[in-house]
Structures are given as structure tokens and as C-alpha cells.
Amino acid sequence: MRWFLLVLLALSACTEAVPAGHIGRTWEASGFTEDLLQPGRHDCWGRCRLYLLETTDQAFEIPQQNILCADNLNFKFSVNLLVGPAVGNKAAVKEIFVKLTPTPGRVFTVKQLFEMYVQPVAVEKEHSVVSAYKTSEIVEKRAQIINEYVAAVKEATKDSVLEVKRISIGNFDFPDVVTQAQEAKAKAAVEIETARNEASKRVEMGQAEVELAGIRYKQQVIEAQTVADYNKIIGASISPQYLAYKQLEIMGRAADGENNMIFIPYTETANGQMQFSQWTKPETLLDSALLAKVNQLKREADKKGGLPFGANLPEPK
Predict the structure, then answer these.
(1) How far is CA 232 from CA 22, 228, 237, in A?
(2) Which residues contact 83 (CB under 8 A, 6 or more apart)?
(3) What's the gap between Cα 146 and its chain centre?
(4) According to the per-residue pLDDT averaged within each range, which of 2-6, 91-95, 230-234 is highest?
């Protein structure tokens, strides 16, 4: 009889696998066993059944919610969470097998746990945290609001079977009136900055023009000084003798012309008498060579009819 029972037990024994990313717990006629089974193959006897719990981290998104803010305007944003079963909390994990109904295949999924334990809390905290602010404050205090929300969700789920490992917030959707106000503010800021840049540009151009005018003024001063110095040098170098020589040179060229004429400058006195100009008086011509040149011109003129007023110049000594 004993031998028969051993054979019967052997025939009723089996093994089942706990796959990676899961933990298991077996159910018997008296209920679930105490032990949590790690990945691997485990013996099952008789009518035992193996149930599984996913233990992998998974990401979920809570779509935008309409949140009525303190100024009675609706504000929306979406929340992304990374969660995973708190396998270290064995008491909470064991309760899952007892209190929840698994999906087909006798598997408790992370999605099932998220929808039951985390999502309702996350949505509730969205409303309680954000609704305390005006929509106009959300723009300026966004970082503060996000920190408050993250802290509230983690505090509310700290003893949950699911551990919230990361929270990110995005897809901010402000009311049109707030968006328009922000756009107008941004546009005004751009216009102000543009005006400042233009004013700064004009100032820089004005400074450049002032500097250029200073350079031009210095150039003009230098040019004027150069002309003045030039005239001063020329004026100092032109003597009566030099002028007389140049005049005689010109008269010599005139005597060689077709009309065969020579011109001797003169001045008319008060009684109508003519006299030589001061610069042609023999005593002012310090160079005998110049006086000889004048007499030569006179002689050439005498041969052709003489001077128009019959003047005679003394021979050089």
C-alpha cells in the first residue's frame, strides 16, 4: 500500500518555471504558500498552481488633465512615471497574490498594479498641488510646482507595492489668454531689446562720427599749417631783386615776339610825369648783371624804334 502511494505521488509531481523578471507563489488547496519563488524551475505537487508577479521597471504616461487653477482658468500637463514593484517589501508583495485577481495566465502585471495603486494618486496630486496656483504663476514658479508635485506623489506611494523611481512633466498647455499674454510679453521684450540695440548702434555711430570729425579737423589743421608754412617760406624767399629778375625775363621773351615790343613798368606822378616803378630803379638792382640785361633790352628796342617814353638807363659801372 505504501508503495502504491509513492508511485501515485511521483506520477502527480511536476515542475513549473518562474521566468526572469518575475517572482512566483504557489497556491494549494489551503491557500498560497509562504515562500516567494525566484526565477527558475520549481516543483509543484498535485493540484498546486503557480502564480507570477512581474518585477521589471516600466514607464507609463498619464495624459493631460484639466486642472482648474486658482484664477478659474484650466491648465493641462502630462506626467510620465517610471515604476517598479517594491520587491524588498515582501509583506506588500504577498498581499498582491491574495487581494488581486491576476490577468489570464495567472500573472500580476506592473500595468495592473500601476492603474490600481499609482495612477489615481498621481492624478489626485496634480489637482491638489497645481490648483493652488494661478495660471500666471505657473510660468514663473514652474520648477517649484514640479518639485512640489514630485514630492507629493512619492510621499503618497512610499509604502505602496510599486516604487515610483522617476517622474517627469511635460506638454504644458496654458489657456489661450495666458499664452497670448506671454507672447505679447515676449514680443515686447524683443522690441525693447531691439530698440536698445538700435540706440547703442546709433551711439556707436555718433562716437565714430565724432572721432572721424576730429581726425578730419586735425588733417585740415595740418593742411592749413602746411600751406601757411609754405607761403611763409615762399614769401621769405621772394626779394625785390628776384621779382625784378622775373619781370625782366618775361619782358625779354616779349621782345622776341612778333610785335617786337618791350614793357617797362612805370608810375605816373601827380603832375603827369612818368617814372620807373620802384623795383626797376637802378639803385635797387644790386646785381650789375641784371642792370646790364636791362640795357641790352633797351638797345635792342632802340634799333626797332626806341622805348615808348624815351627813357635812358645808366650803363653799369
Answers:
(1) 110, 6, 9
(2) 57, 58, 59, 60, 110, 113, 114, 118, 162, 163, 164, 165
(3) 29
(4) 91-95
How distant is the alpha carbon of residue 36 from its chain centre? 60
* Number of domains the chain contains: 3
Q: With respect to residue 182, please indicate whether it lies within any of the assigned structural domains.
A: yes
Could you read off the pLDDT of 35-82 as tens digits, one per residue?
Answer: 888 888 888 766 788 899 999 999 999 988 778 888 888 888 889 999
Cell of 161: 507595492
How many residues belong to the chain?
A: 317
Q: Residue 10 has what pLDDT?
A: 43
Number of H helices, E strands in the chain: 9, 12
pLDDT grade, residue 152 (50/70/90)?
A: very high
State mean pLDDT over 186-209: 73
Contact criterion met (CB below 8 Å) for 9 and 45: yes
Q: Is residue 181 pLDDT above 70, yes or no?
A: no
Q: Do 65 and 127 form a contact (C-beta atoms < 8 A)?
A: yes
> Residue 10 domain-assigned?
no
Range of the domain at 288: 240-303
Q: Are residues 164 and 81 in the same domain?
A: yes
Q: Is 166 left (phi over 0), alpha (psi -120 to 50) or beta?
A: beta
Q: What would you report as the CA-atom Rg of the chain, rounded to the nearest whole angstrom?
A: 60
Cα–Cα distances in angstroms (integers) from residue 163 to residues 41, 103, 133, 288, in the given order:
27, 21, 28, 127
